[in-house]
Design a protein that fits this description.
nine-stranded mixed beta sheet; alpha+beta; 244 residues
Length: 244
């Protein structure tokens, strides 16, 4: 889990409380000290919460980061970190690279063990490992050659959340972008225009059709140096990786 994951979970918790009537956008904005339109856009995925405002929200709601780590065994995580041991999970490996100019990944090339806890992937749907190609528009979020873990859960693809990254199918290629969605319009957000909503790419698509555009959620990004330098023997396979 990283800071981005915690921020995502905080926004999800705020959205849940507002939807359940526990909070109002106006009340939340007042106690945190920001405008109601800003809070509204955060909950819709159109704006990003700064660390300063995240801290204010945690304080106002009497929450800590531990309240945002539901499902994570903190004691087990600390034991593994302190002992230097790492758990591994075997994942399907997607053929080729993901990025502009690369062919859409049609197949799984095999299976390999990665340094990631099985508990982290237990709740995902058809998780696969994929390698990122060069994407100049996402240079702040992605490093060429690093690995991403893709969750293909249809429900996660129909309901994008703020600050999460998604694999989208565009012009015959797979690209990783931030995503926002409002009535029949998807906004594909690259790093270089993230703070300029008027420059976001728009795609007209209904909520029912959204999974055809959004193929997976990037559940976790792990730097290449954190993965094994050499894979174990890969069992060749040509199963379909993602549907067109």
């Amino acid at each position: 889990m990283n800071f981005g994951d915690l921020q995502h979970r905080l926004v999800e918790e705020l959205r849940r409380r507002v939807n359940n009537g526990e909070l109002t956008e106006r009340g939340l904005a007042r106690c945190v000290g920001i405008s109601q339109p800003h809070i509204h856009k955060v909950l819709k995925g159109r704006k990003i919460l700064s660390q300063r405002f995240c801290d204010r929200i945690l304080s106002a709601l009497c929450l800590s980061v531990f309240d945002l780590t539901d499902g994570v065994d903190g004691e087990q995580w600390l034991r593994e970190r302190r002992s230097g041991s790492r758990r591994t999970a075997v994942l399907d490996v997607v053929e080729g690279l993901i990025g502009p100019g690369e062919s859409w990944p049609e197949h799984i090339t095999g299976r390999a063990a990665f340094v990631v806890s099985p508990a982290d992937i237990a709740a995902l749907t058809h998780p696969v490992a994929a390698q990122v190609g060069r994407d100049p528009r996402m240079s702040d979020a992605l490093v060429p050659g690093e690995w991403v873990l893709l969750d293909q859960c249809p429900e996660a693809r129909r309901h994008p959340i703020a600050d999460a990254l998604y694999l989208v199918f565009r012009n015959g290629a797979g690209m990783i972008r931030y995503l926002a969605y409002e009535t029949d319009t998807a906004y594909l957000i690259a790093d270089d225009v993230r703070l300029s909503p008027d420059r976001w790419e728009t795609v007209e698509v209904t909520a029912l059709e959204l999974p055809r555009l959004v193929r997976a959620r990037v559940h976790r990004i792990v730097r290449s140096e954190q993965w094994p330098r050499k894979w174990p023997a890969v069992q060749a396979d040509r199963a379909t990786a993602t549907s067109r």
